[in-house]
Amino acid sequence: MVDIGLFTQIVINGLLLGGIYVTIGVGFSLAFGVLEVVDFAVGEYVMVGAFMGAVLAPILGSEGVFVIPIVLVVFFGVGALIQPLIHHVTTGDRPHPLLMGLVFTFGLATFLRGSVLTIFGPNNQDVPSSLLTGGVTIPGIGTFPVVRTVTAVFGVTGLLVFMYYLYRTRGGMAIRAIAEDRTNARLMGININRYQSIAYGAYAALTGSAGVFIGMTFTANPGMGLQYTAFAFFMVVLAGMGYLPGVILAGIVLGLTQSFTAVYISGNLVLLVLFAIIYVVLLVSPAGILGKGEWAT
Amino acid sequence: MTGPVPSLDRLPGEPRYWYAGLAVLLVAWPLLFGDFWARIGLGALMWIGLAQSWNMIGGYAGYLDFGHGAYFGIGAFATGIAMAQLGYPFVVGFVLAAVVAATVAYLVAVPTLRLTGAYFAIATWALAESIKQAALVTGITGGTFGLSLPRSSETFVGVPVPFPISEAFFYYAMLVLCLATMALTYYLFERHEFGYRVKALRDDQDAAESLGIDTTRVKRQVYVLSCVVAALFGAVHAWYIVYVHPNDVLAPIITDRMVIMALLGGLGTLTGPVVGGLLVFLLERLSSVFLGSTTFYLPLIGILIMITVLFAPSGIIGILRGEVDRADVRENVKELGEKFDLL
Fold this sequence. Notes:
The complex is a heterodimer of chains A (297) and B (343). Chain A contains eleven helices and two strands; from the N terminus they run H-H-H-H-E-E-H-H-H-H-H-H-H. Chain A is mainly alpha-helical and 297 residues long. Chain A has one domain. Chain A has a two-stranded antiparallel sheet with strand order 1-2. In chain A, strand 1 and strand 2 form a beta hairpin. In chain A, helix 1 runs antiparallel to helix 8, helix 5 packs antiparallel against helix 8 and helix 9 packs across helix 10. The longest helix of chain A has 32 residues. Chain A is globular, with a radius of gyration of 19 Å. Chain A starts with a helix and ends in a 13-residue tail after the last helix. Chain B has one domain: Orthogonal Bundle (ABC transporter involved in vitamin B12 uptake, BtuC). Chain B is 72% helix and 1% strand. Chain B contains 14 helices and two strands. In chain B, helix 5 runs antiparallel to helix 8. The two termini of chain B are 41 Å apart. At the A-B interface, helix 3, helix 4, helix 8, helix 9 and helix 11 of A face helix 4, helix 10, helix 12 and helix 14 of B. Chain B: Pfam families: BPD_transp_2 (PF02653). Chain B: InterPro entries: ABC_transp_permease, LivM-like.
């Protein structure tokens, strides 16, 4: 028999997890739309974010939340400076520019993982937080763990701000124009270097700060990146590359899948199930299950 | 890009003396330097061969296979299961590795090769990860315990052989396998018509199709061939290391290394994977011996990849051949500088 209390608790946990995954997925999908690069480093940004939390939180009075603004600023800056490099390898006179972009981010991922592994060793590191502990129990529904709730709220807020920028401001319009057609956007007088850097920087900042929250919810580990790269791929593959509304749905599906698989089947099988779904969806419907993604090579 | 083995031709003196000297050195290596250097040598040979196997599909055919390491693991597990679970000698495991890898590769190739570019890369990457996760939870692979292989004189062909199964034996096994891979690559991709078909489909699939090349068939052939080669190295590796575990032989780092070695040396060239393979392998060994860190080579490799892609996309071989010279790099730096015009 299905225990109703447990069931609703799993749904709550899954939805709250989905909130933060959506943040990662939307940025990742946008980076793909603007730069046309599939970023293998996405999970490593999460990992580096979590480690920044682990390192800086003890300095800032054992409070992971205070690290968030620093991570946002630092990741935005670093992302804005990485973007020209990616833009350079995916354009210009070289064989297979898109594949070169893929390989470049692959190198970036190896560099980030290797550096953190070399500096901090392979062990788990805690991201301490004294504000976000315990949980709020609502009778008849279930317990909302504070850290996961704040994480989800942050994820959704970040997403809304980002969406507002993207759809309601001139800068956002420029970014969407670049995603539509880079050459034409440039002909319309858009500084593509600047807006691509803003888009990639915003993506890096959102992903890195999501990493701090993930570090507070679980723990920080140099090997954790792979899992979140897989999650990001899962979301965009399911949603269709570059289709933002689909990513939101896919992130929620991901959070629910993860919490249900972990409870009812086995935690070891979560990744197997996800990878199998990625593989099958790519083969059957490469434009996503909603069929609205763009087809890129 | 179609020249014969180039680099040795540039050395002073008659090239064949250099080849002869190299051949003597390779054969005499374990006898001259002992077990420690035989181990280093066989590792280098294995990685050169694996990088070359990736180069077949990734370099010559232009399909970035980010799950190629899975076939190394499949080869290792086929041998491991044959020897540890079923009690067969190594040769049976070796043949089984080839058969299993070819079957799996063909079944994977039929649907997966319809994808291109990034989609192909993600799909193969996801597939390799799911194979690893599956190996961790199934019984026949030993699950999380792994498998231990027997290594004695009878386990080679079933009856005792008159030579010891030592480091030197495995060195020669890897040498033969590596040279065979090189010869096969040279013949098929640089000399045979097959190589021209493969390069044609890499450069322009539609054009190749219009010239009457059955691209689907050629792609499948390259994919299966490259996977079987990787599996054979996996088979020898499993017996050499006498222990196979999903976290070792199916680790994503195996694919990473193959990609990096081929890319750094030069994609789609015969000698690229040799140069890249040697360089990356030695970098890894030396950093663990001299710096006492077994992970320090990872960031180094990451930086090397990024620099290669940014400034010398044809790899070290491209620089040696003079395809990329100082003016190209300067031009590259200038163009890159313009892209930093952010404000």
